[in-house]
Amino acid sequence: MQNLADLRKIYARDSLAEEDVHQDPMKQFEVWFEQASQAQCPEPHAMTLATVNGDGLPSVRTVLLKGIIDQQFVFYTNYLSQKGKSIAINPNVALLFFWHELERQVRIEGTCVKLSPELSDVYYHSRPIESRIGAWASPQSDVVENRHYLESLENDYRSQFGDHPPRPPHWGGYCVVPQRIEFWQGRPSRLHDRINFTQVNQFWKIERLAP
After folding, report:
1. Number of domains forming the structure of the chain
2. 139 Cα distance to chain centroid
3. Count of CB atoms within 10 A of residue 86's CB?
4. What is the pLDDT of residues 10-59, one digit of tens each?
5. Distance set, CA 67 to CA 38, 64, 72, 73 (Å)
6. Does 140 fall in a domain?
7. Structural domain of residue 37, as residue ranges?
8. Can you give the three-state secondary structure of the chain, one letter per residue?
9. Residue 196: inside a domain
């Protein structure tokens, strides 16, 4: 294995100053997200989701942002998955977007609540039929014997529902209500720009953080 200490990158693509950011962090996020999409960053809507379970143990995985509703970050999953069970116990979560091509990160901390059943229905029925059947067939995060077991469940549910499966009661959306949003721009000498927004009494307080 190569010496990991030798893996270094010079960050010098852009900068971020307090006077350059939008006073509303959600507007600033939209600007950066659009720039990440235009820069053809792979899956710019991919975000790392961190949760904490009932034993205080953290867990992290990548999910996909599927929209912003009322200034809240929306994703969908199985409510009975590991993350779903953790959220039910402790709704405090963190999100991370990393756009390598732009040398940028966005860090978000907030609380997670379920999306309304009506909105979950709308999104579920917009998905490809394979994904809709898969939501029924996968006992997400549970131990299964082998892949054949999953494929058997998939075939069973397809036979049961055909091309018109209803949304499973254990599957739907979550909204992350942000309380803190940090915009990170890589800079030379590791003196990165970090502009932090914290919600205080329904207003956003803007501060620069040391790198």
Report:
1. 1
2. 21
3. 23
4. 777 899 999 999 999 999 999 999 999 999 999 999 999 999 999 999 99
5. 17, 9, 8, 6
6. no
7. 8-119+173-208
8. CCCHHHCCCCCCCCCCCHHHCCCCHHHHHHHHHHHHHHCCCCCCCEEEEEEECCCCCEEEEEEECCEEECCEEEEEEECCCHHHHHHHHCCEEEEEEEEHHHCEEEEEEEEEEECCHHHHHHHHHHCCHHHHHHHHHCCCCCCCCCHHHHHHHHHHHHHHHCCCCCCCCCEEEEEEEEEEEEEEECCHHHCCEEEEEEEECCEEEEEECCC
9. yes
pTM for the whole structure: 0.94
Tokens of 39: 């820069």
Report yes or no: 135 and 114 within 8 Å, Cβ to Cβ: no
Q: For residue 161, give both structure tokens.
A: 């529902």
Catalytically active residues are 190
CATH of the domain at 22: 2.30.110.10
Rounded Cα gap, residues 176 and 83, in angstroms: 13
Residue 156 lies in a domain: no
Residue with tokens 């501060």: 207
Torsion sign (Cα): 174, 177, 180, 184: positive
Give CA–CA dist 137/151, Å, rounded: 8
- Two structure tokens written together for 211: 């790198």
